[in-house]
Specification:
single chain; mainly alpha; Serine Threonine Protein Phosphatase 5, Tetratricopeptide repeat
Length: 400
């Protein structure tokens, strides 16, 4: 654990030397709020506001104030955001007043939001628990009697929902109806690209999205779909550039760091990948996926000692996860520490007995430890579970 902390501390120290961007502070604030450390988030964002009085930073600090129950301070921050970018803070104000039980004021600010460029989707509003206290109030019911969303917007929302449930056929029917009435609209083209992506027509999806980005190069939604399409096309260098673009335009989504790390790993840019994963672990120190990825990166770079420290830390935090045992077992396997590998593979199989690859690797470890009979049992088990690679080990060592 000490080595991991030093790894993270070194990275954050280098950030302080080179200077952090506002998006780094925003991601840090987001992580602290999620960890229940709203006070620390408020402190960090307050320092950032001293030099960068931007609406998005006021909104982020307002969320921290909300999380700590300091509604008056949150209202002040949302109003400050509105002064810098009209209506940017209205959705937050609607949420606060809903939580306070003030339906009339909540609806007033929600209306302002829906009339602005910051408008939220109907789905996002309906799933927001903040409005639970007022959903049976007459002001709320009256508000939704008005058609706030066009037929085109509703149709696109239906397409997105159908695609999320795997109903591509219905999505295409809806798209055909919409494109006949609203051809040439950017949001219709986006829906078409989304359908192409789900049909695995990745080249077509990339072509459509690239055209849309020519007019709106910083559109968050378009960039995210482009990155997904690039990864599907095995264009990991392009995808990492797109994730960098999202971070450069200030999207404070820490998950982008994980996604870019995966791309750097596949392009062999291990140093960049390690920088990103260290940054993510600085935000979420106990994250299972990040610790696993950090260990794999260290192993691939040739530092198996560091890799083992990440895998062991992951096991301490997630002792009942078979994948954590497999990660460490694989690291022992690479270093030819057969007895340790056998022990961890066995632990993973106690939790997940149908993993044919683990049975095979445990068999290889047993074979290298001179335990032929036990190894043959594992090879047979692996083969029975459908692993054809076990055949060569069986024929070579277990058939006489």
């Amino acid at each position: 654990m000490k080595k991991i902390l030093l790894f993270i501390m070194f990275f954050w120290a280098s950030l302080m030397i080179t200077g952090q961007k506002p998006v780094d502070y925003l991601m840090r604030g987001k992580a602290l709020i999620e960890a229940g450390k709203s006070g620390e988030a408020i402190s960090i964002l307050s320092k950032l506001l001293e030099g960068s009085p931007e609406s998005r930073i006021y909104i982020s600090r307002a969320e921290a104030f909300m999380a700590s129950g300091e509604y008056s301070q949150a209202i002040n921050d949302y109003n400050s955001a509105n002064k810098l970018d009209p209506s940017s803070g209205d959705y937050g104000l609607a949420r606060i007043y809903a939580l306070k039980g003030d339906a009339a004021t909540a609806v007033y600010h929600l209306e302002s939001n829906l009339k602005s460029s910051f408008r939220k989707s109907e789905k996002e509003i309906m799933l927001d628990p903040s409005f639970g206290l007022i959903e049976n109030r007459p002001e709320w019911r009256q508000f939704w009697k008005k058609e706030w969303y066009s037929a085109r917007e509703k149709g696109i929302a239906e397409i997105e929902y159908d695609l999320s449930t795997g109903n591509i056929t219905q999505a295409k029917i809806t798209f055909s109806e919409l494109s006949g009435n609203y051809s040439g609209q950017d949001d219709i083209d986006y829906a078409g690209a989304l359908i192409s992506f789900h049909e695995k027509k990745y080249t077509e999806a990339a072509r459509i999205i690239s055209g849309l980005l020519a007019d709106e190069p910083e559109n968050d939604k378009y960039l995210r779909l482009l990155s997904m399409t690039q990864e599907a096309l095995n264009n990991y260098a392009g995808a990492s550039s797109t994730y960098s673009k999202l971070l450069d335009i200030g999207i404070p989504d820490p998950e982008l760091l994980i996604q870019r790390t995966e791309c750097y790993r596949k392009t062999g840019e291990t140093g960049k990948a390690l920088d990103d994963i260290a940054k993510y672990l600085g935000l979420y120190p106990g994250d299972k996926k990040a610790l696993s990825l950090a260990g794999k990166l260290e192993s691939e770079s040739g530092d198996n000692i560091k890799a083992l420290s990440f895998f062991s830390e992951n096991l301490k935090l997630h002792p009942n996860d078979p994948e954590c045992y497999i990660d460490r077992a694989n690291s022992y396997f690479v270093s030819r520490s057969w007895d340790f590998a056998i022990k961890d593979y066995s632990m993973s199989l106690d939790l997940q007995p149908e993993n044919s690859e683990v049975w095979l690797n445990k068999g290889i470890s047993l074979l290298n430890s001179g335990k032929m009979s036990d190894a043959c049992y594992d090879f047979r088990k692996s083969f029975s579970l459908g692993n054809k690679k076990a055949t060569q080990y069986l024929s070579r060592n277990c058939i006489k």
